[in-house]
Design brief:
The protein is mainly α. It has helices at residues 6-17, 19-22, 38-43, 51-80, 84-98, 109-122, and strands spanning 27-28, 33-34.
């Protein structure tokens, strides 16, 4: 019953690992200067006054995306081994990690909700 979710979860792992690479619309400073990815942030001239803020933000996105993906991989393995409870817990962690970025991505929250619904159907 949960096998159909595994490919979606594996895709989410890949998307999550690329949050900082693919980025999203983000502005820095009072003028909301657009810096939409880690690559853009690191390419800013040192003289750009909000460079440190942008680089720090996107590095944090990179780290959080990888943390969410690591937990997502645990969820995939748990599902493959038939451990639905462990998969649900790992997906919860991924969706929790994603919360600060929920205005920009919904990589994990929809999968977590889907698992919860399937679990309720099986109960």
């Amino acid at each position: 019953m949960f096998e159909d979710v595994i490919p979606q979860m594996e895709e989410a792992v890949e998307r999550s690992r690329k949050w900082a690479e693919n980025g999203w619309r983000m502005g820095f400073g009072p003028q909301n200067a657009p810096v939409d990815s880690l690559k853009e942030a690191e390419a800013l001239p040192v003289s750009f006054i909000y460079r440190e803020e942008a680089v720090s933000y996107w590095r944090q996105v990179h780290l959080m995306g990888n943390d969410a993906a690591d937990s997502g991989e645990k969820a995939v393995e748990a599902l493959k081994n038939g451990n639905i409870d462990a998969a649900e817990k790992a997906l919860y962690l991924s969706s929790y990690i994603e919360r600060p970025y929920e205005n920009y991505t919904s990589t994990w929250s929809s999968l977590y909700e889907a698992i919860k619904e399937k679990m309720a159907e099986c109960a």
